[in-house]
Design a protein that fits this description.
Uridine Diphospho-n-acetylenolpyruvylglucosamine Reductase, domain 1; Uridine Diphospho-n-acetylenolpyruvylglucosamine Reductase, domain 3; 8 helices; single chain; binds flavin-adenine dinucleotide; alpha+beta; Uridine Diphospho-n-acetylenolpyruvylglucosamine Reductase, domain 2; 21 strands; 5-stranded antiparallel beta sheet; 313 residues; 28% strand
Length: 313
């Protein structure tokens, strides 16, 4: 297998995944392949599909954790970071970092992606999770997407991506995102730079920057999606119901869980929806904290939290 994989890119065997995940946890990947071009990526995917080999795409590793047992298959990293700006359209390969795309589009005097300057990871990962910040999200400006699906390469529209809050069709199918086209508006360059600075300053103020993390562990609670009655409703501020979103960080904080540690993992003191690796954490420590939070929130509020991060067992 090692020899065969080499035709597609650089191959590592038994690679520690913690080196490639922002949370710095997880076991080893049996095979870890870094692919440089879209052609090689398509060939690799069809090779693996043809042999039924389990595989998973890894972008910046900022929204994923792997089990301590690692991944018994092929972890694929796509390194093509091409980002072309033509007039108001940006064509970007899924391996490009979200920060780079934000900077390139701002430099070209385009507005609509300033929020991306604070998002770790790649465009592939951001599209899959419909990443967003400061009231904006991927959905707002994506025009179309090129995907690999069952041996074919297809172009699909924004509507076909079925974007919802931190969700898309890609979370529910096996499509591999190859390339994305965005459409933006033109604006005075200084305005977008100012906005981007504001985004960064806000993040520094509100997010734990010093320790490894995967960002928000759970999605915020969408009131309209709740299927059961909320318990102790009177304790939750009315304004959340008016806005239709209950911040999960608020729920966790209200239960006094900030700062709780299991092994090397801790519920952040700064932002309760972040779990941070404060020293040699295992994936199991994080999973145990996730369970503890879910159980407490369900017991007190009757709300089932949903993980935003992808957990690969
Ligand atoms: C400090 C910090 C702050 C964060 N703040 C935010 C925030 O404000 N808003 C927000 O939305 N998110 C935030 N995140 C989460 C994360 O940065 C985003 O979800 C990011 O877009 C994930 O991209 P990634 O490349 O790192 O994906 P990864 O973590 O590498 O992968 C995530 C998922 O996407 C899949 N994937 C990756 N590439 C492809 C591809 N080409 N085709 C198909 N599937 C693919 C993976 O298999 C995996 O299932 C934050 C994370 C951190 C660590």
């Amino acid at each position: 297998m090692h020899k065969e994989l080499k035709q597609f890119g650089k191959v590592k065997i038994e690679e520690p995944l913690s080196k490639h995940i922002t949370m710095k946890v997880g076991g080893r990947a049996k095979y870890f392949v870094v692919v440089e071009t879209i052609e090689k990526l398509k060939e690799l995917l069809s090779f693996l599909d043809g042999r039924g080999v389990p595989h998973i795409m890894l972008g910046g590793g900022s929204n994923i954790i792997f089990s301590d047992n690692g991944f018994d298959g092929v972890v694929i990293v796509f390194k093509d970071t091409t980002c072309n700006v033509v007039d108001t359209e940006v064509e970007v390969f899924s391996g490009c970092s979200t920060v780079r795309m934000a900077k390139e589009s701002m430099a070209a005097g385009l507005t609509g992606f300033e929020w991306g300057v604070g998002i770790p990871g790649t465009i592939g990962g951001a599209l899959r999770g419909n990443a967003g910040a400061m009231g904006a999200e991927m959905k707002d400006t994506v025009d179309r997407v090129e995907v690999y699906r069952n041996g074919e390469v297809l172009e699909i529209s924004n509507e076909e991506c079925e974007f919802r809050y931190r969700d898309s069709a890609f979370k529910h199918n096996a499509d591999i995102i190859l390339r994305v086209w965005f459409t933006f508006a033109k604006v005075e360059n200084e305005d977008v730079k100012k906005q981007a600075m504001e985004v960064l300053q806000y993040r520094i103020k509100t997010q734990p920057m010093g320790f490894p993390s995967s960002g928000s562990v759970f999605t915020n609670v969408q009131v309209k999606n709740l299927t059961s009655e909320i318990k102790n409703k009177e304790e939750i501020p009315k304004e959340f119901f008016e806005k239709g979103i209950i911040p999960t960080g608020w729920l966790i904080d209200s239960l006094g869980l900030k700062g709780i540690k299991i092994g090397g993992a801790q519920i952040s003191e700064k932002h309760a929806n972040f779990i941070v690796n404060v020293g040699e954490a295992k994936t199991q420590d994080i999973l145990d904290l996730i369970e503890l939070i879910k159980e407490k929130v369900y017991t007190i509020y009757g709300i089932n939290l949903e993980e935003e991060i992808k957990i690969v067992y």
